[in-house]
Structure formats: C-alpha cells, structure tokens
UniProtKB/TrEMBL annotation:
Listed name of the protein: Chorismate-binding protein
InterPro entries (alphabetical): ADC_synthase, Anth_synth_I-like, Chorismate_C
Pfam (any one): Chorismate_bind
Species name: Actinomadura vinacea
Domain Chorismate-utilising enzyme C-terminal as annotated: residue spans: 65-309
Phylogenetic classification of the source organism: Bacteria, Bacillati, Actinomycetota, Actinomycetes, Streptosporangiales
Amino acid sequence: MGGILATGLADVTSDLGALESRGWWAVVVTYEGKVTCARFDRVGPGAHPGGRWVAPGEWDTSLDEAAYVRGVQRIRDAIAEGIVYQANLCRVMSAPMGRGADMAGLGLRLSERHPAPYAMTLRVPGLEVASASPELYLARDGDVVESRPIKGTGRTEDDLLPKDRAENVMIVDLVRNDVGRVAEAGSVTVPELCAVERHPGLVHLVSTVRARTAPGKGWPELLEATFPPGSVTGAPKSSALDLLDELEPVPRGPYCGAIGWVDADSRRGALAVGIRTFWAEEGLLRFGTGAGITWGSEPAREWRETELKAARLLEVAAGDGGAGQDLAERGAARS
C-alpha cells in the first residue's frame, strides 16, 4: 500500500479496539460489517510483490441491464414518495479465477496500469483483496479526521451534470452529520466542495470534510458513527440501506466497505472506500460497480456509468490491454 510493504503476519482479529493498541494494522471491513484487522511485524518501504496472474473466465453480474434499470426506477419512485433523496445502486460481478492466479499478481498489474491514491493489495488467510480505490473514507492524524467523498462521474469534465453536483452536496451533508457524532462541537468543516479530480479514464467530483474528534473517540467510535460510507449508501442513510437491501440480490463484501491501514503507535491511518476493488471468494474473482441515483437520474445513463467505472479495471484483470471496450462486448452484462 502506497509504497509500504508489510510482512510477518503477527495477529488477526475482528476487534476494532485493537486499532487503539499498538503496531501497524491492515484493515478490511466488508459492507456488511465483517471486520478483519491484521497486524504485521515488518513494515517499511518496498516494491509491490510479484505473482503469477491468469485472466479470469467470463464475467456474470448480479444485476443485468434490465434489472438495474428497474432498480433505478424503483429508487426514483422512492424519492418521489419522500423515502430517500439519493441511493447508490450497485451490482457485483463474478468470474472464475484463472487457474494458478495469485492475487499479488493482479495487485501489481493494478499498481502499474491503474494507479490510485489508496491502492492496496492484501493477502492473509481467508481474505485476498486487490484494490485501486480513489476515494478516502476516513483518514486520521491524531485527533484530526478527514473524509473525501466522491459523487459525480464522467469521462470528461464536460460530462458532469447538475445532477452530479446535487448528489455530491447531499452526500457531503450526510458525511458532515455522521462525523459530527464523534467530533468536537463546531469543529466540522468543508474545506473543499465539488472539486474535479482526474483519474485513469474518467473524472470525479470530490469534496473534503474535516473535523477534530471529541476526547475518548477512536477508530471504533469513528466507524460506528460513519459506516458504511455515505457515498456508497445514500441519504437518509438508514432508509437508503433498507431500500438497497431490497434491490441488491447479493452481498457487496469488501466492495463499498473500508480498506486501508492504521498505525496504532502514531495514531495515524487511512481507510479507503472499497471501490475499484477485486476480491477472491469461493473460487471466483469478484468486482463491484455502481452509481448514485437521484430524481434527475436517467436509468440507461446510470447503467452506462457502472460500465464506465468497471471497464478499465476489467481490462487490467483480463490482460488484453484494450481501452474503452464496452463491457457488453465481454459478456459482462449477462445475468
């Protein structure tokens, strides 16, 4: 992660309180709340480990285009009824793992061909993840915490619509409220609102929320107050979670959860939102993609946004070197 190589696995726990103890921890929290904290003894600068990577088989998706479009319309109906203002509808794609494939090999390919500010490759017993996340869920430096939610995606800045800015502002309000539950009164600020960030193959609108934690509030309290990340759920969060549980047929797993590191000794850390993320499960390589739905959403356009977000990452995993290839041509739109 970020030029840091951690080896010498010393401990694995599901207790978030361990992040307030000692040592350097890799952290994965699934969208459903399963916690993995892995402490390593040897941590320092290092090159990404190599590994054999074999392209996966053909991709299936938990929601095909017709089902996804119906889901978008259901969310728009819920907005009209006043149940939610916004919800992030996601689908999980799966393909058979290539025989002899090593997740470290995929992580290395991602680091070389799709660099991302919060990229991470993790391999511990029972969990293998390769992420190229561009989105900061929570960073902590002592008592100062920061979140940088992403909402609004296009191939270029000209593709961004008023709907994208409205969506971003709604989620910023949600994140401010979440962080405010564990922050000193009056310390929550928004230093940057709807800034344009460029990433491989697309652009995003990104905002920054910053605060100072109240005394006695650490990682367990921060996650309890803010998880799952607001940018991948919706607003109001509780209503959006209920609606998404109705519409999404499979668990999201590490996708849309939290992926990152914590140095308990220095009270520093950074957890990314688990987007642009692959993980291995039951002989399958899985990958999630989604889009934020508002009243202004056009269902077919939202489906295309999920394809745009996935396309370059699946090309890296396939090893074909293509760019801009429509996912339907790869069979990824089949249920």
